From TrEMBL:
This is Ferredoxin. InterPro entries: 4Fe4S_Fe-S-bd, 4Fe4S_Fe_S_CS, Pyridox_Oxase_N, Split_barrel_FMN-bd. Pfam families: Fer4_10 (PF13237), PNPOx_N (PF01243). One of its GO terms (molecular function) is oxidoreductase activity. The lineage of its organism: Archaea, Methanobacteriati, Methanobacteriota, Methanomada group, Methanobacteria. It comes from Methanobrevibacter thaueri. Residues 147-174, 175-203 form the 4Fe-4S ferredoxin-type domain.
Length: 203
């Protein structure tokens, strides 16, 4: 079990994260953009008006942030929007991230624009334990995306799913096997090997 506060703490400790956007041709674009402020469950960052990422977000506001520390990843998927009161947010973010003064000294900072992600899904994924562990949180109006696999009532309790699973996580409950979703790798080996087609992909 992990808390959202622990996730936010890791995001601020790492700071550097990969922000992914989509350009006007539908091509994915990724770059390192620091997560510079977290307040009231909202994620804040800055980027320059002349950069491609700025126009990409303005034209296609759906973004994904990915942060990794010690094989524990945090992925944020949501919509970014530009903030009003540019000067307030830039000054606040520079105060909390003083290294930015070396990059944009003096009034050069105001070429930047502040963005906020407030409606998003956050997934924590930990590869350091066995079985692996994942947990999702939703913020604002976002919904948690259903993923992974599920064993239906067609299960004949043969145990093939457990034997083929890299983490051996399917467990026998009453008269059939079940997949603890928080430990699932989403690899699909159980799905491909089930002799009775009793496993479905969660949509």
């Amino acid at each position: 079990m992990v808390t959202k506060e622990e996730c936010f703490k890791q995001l601020r400790e790492v700071i550097d994260a990969v922000l992914s956007t989509v350009d006007d041709n539908g091509n994915p674009q990724s770059r390192i953009i620091d997560i510079m402020h977290i307040e009231d469950d909202r994620i804040y960052f800055l980027t320059g008006r002349g950069k491609h990422v700025y126009s990409e977000i303005m034209n296609h506001p759906k973004v994904s942030y990915l942060s990794l520390k010690d094989n524990k990843s945090i992925r944020i998927s949501g919509e970014a929007h530009k903030l009003d009161d540019q000067k307030y947010w830039i000054d606040l973010i520079f105060e909390n991230n003083p290294f930015m003064n070396n990059v944009y000294p003096g009034n050069a900072r105001y070429i930047l624009e502040p963005f906020c992600i407030e409606d998003y899904e956050m997934e924590f994924f930990d590869l350091t334990q066995k079985p692996i562990f994942r947990q999702s949180f939703k913020f604002g109006d976002a919904e948690i995306t259903v993923k992974g696999f599920e064993i239906t009532d067609d299960c004949i309790a043969c145990g093939t799913c457990q034997a083929s699973c890299p983490q051996q996580i399917p467990v026998f409950v009453e008269d059939k096997f079940e997949i603890p979703q928080e430990h699932c790798l989403h690899c699909g080996l159980c799905y491909e090997n089930c002799p009775n087609d009793a496993i479905v992909k969660r949509e």
